Amino acid sequence: MKPNIPTAAPGRTARGLIALISALAGGTLMHVLNWPLPWLLGPMVGVLIGSSIWKDKYRWPGPVRNAGMIAVGYTIGLSLTGAALREMGAQLPTMLLMTALLLLLCATLAAVVAKLGGIPYLTALMGSIPGGLTQVLILAEETKGVNLTVVTIIQVVRLMLIVICIPLLIFSPIFGFQIGESVSTVGNSGAHADWAGLWPALPIYAVVCTLFAILGNKVRFPTAYLLAPALGAALLQAAGLHGPALPAPTIDAAQLAIGTYVGLLLKPAQLERKLRTLALAALSGIGLLVCAIGLSFLLTKIHPLSLPTALLSLAPGGMDQMGLVAHEIGADLSTVAGYQLFRTFFIFFAVPPLLRWIIRLASRRAKDEKSGQGTS
């Protein structure tokens, strides 16, 4: 008999190439099929399928993903003109209202998920909070009594549902939007950007955005590799240096970098009680999506926004993914960024104190119940 010699796992470079090939295959297939956002969804699905079949064969370097985030942040920063910021200031009360309503609906949905799944309410609540994945996981890790594994599963499945369903909804008969159509003149100029027009401003923007991202990450700025470059680009533009739009291949590469990273986050094989956990995650994601759709219709009644712009502004997905969708369809990127940014900061700064208050309230009630049982 031949000895059973274990095969060595591929090296880091080889695993990165395997991930890149799978991502390119998925993106190419969706591009040929004319799917929306082929270079975001295609790599995500391709890597998810490949890494589920060939375990431990995939790797995606964090700096590559961060570079994609910086590119998206730069694009968002260009949309934050003086006029756009004034418009965002005028809509601050509406941003607060919509964020509060969405979080209230999330809290209600979390109660339903907790009761159906028999899981702690705080775990269900952290899984339902529509913040950035990284921020919510850090928040969950720092919160006592929260099952981090369940929170991660619910958040990742929600993100997957949102990122896949939002483009399909926008291009569905409900929204009446056609592939190749633009809902505004903002954010879609990258498709026809002139490569020669990138110099000399782009290298300056690249250095500043990268430095802002690194500094933001060091000071734990929320979604540092996205928001900090957006802030840097906005400041440079306010100083009078015009920032050129990125060519379409650059945006496609940024989508691929982010989509591949998200695809590797999904590890279905590691789920315990797979069917129940996935069902709860799907219920939470679908519930949040329905809430966002309802609120987007309400937002279009309050402000003269297109329905795709309103939905992308309120969609409980990551700001990077929603920003990419907004750029792809030519939605009002500054409005989308404004609402998503406001919710990100609100969740980052306001939710932790609220959670601490809920924990204290729950602990007090538990002590009262115990003392009541002891005296009876």
Topology:
Blueprint: H1 12-32, H2 38-53, H3 62-79, H4 82-90, H5 92-117, H6 121-128, H7 133-142, H8 148-170, H9 201-218, H10 224-238, H11 248-265, H12 274-302, H13 307-314, H14 319-329, H15 333-375
Helix pairs in contact: 1-2, 2-11, 3-9, 3-10, 3-11, 3-14, 4-15, 5-6, 5-12, 6-8, 7-8, 8-12, 9-10, 12-13, 13-14, 13-15, 14-15
Walk me through this protein's architecture.
It is built from 15 helices and no strands. The protein is 73% helix and 0% strand. The chain starts with 11 loop residues before the first helix and ends with a helix. 46% of the residues are buried. Helix 3 crosses helix 14. The protein has a single domain, classed as Na+/H+ antiporter like fold (Up-down Bundle). It has 376 residues and is mainly α.
Mean pLDDT: 79
The low-pLDDT segments are 182-192
What is the name of the CATH topology? Na+/H+ antiporter like fold
One letter per element, helices H and strands E, the order comes to HHHHHHHHHHHHHHH
Helix content: over 70%
Structural class: mainly alpha
State the end-to-end distance.
73 Å
| Tally of helical runs | 15
Notable traits:
376 residues; mainly alpha; Na+/H+ antiporter like fold; 15 helices; 73% helix; 0% strand; AbrB family transcriptional regulator; AbrB_fam
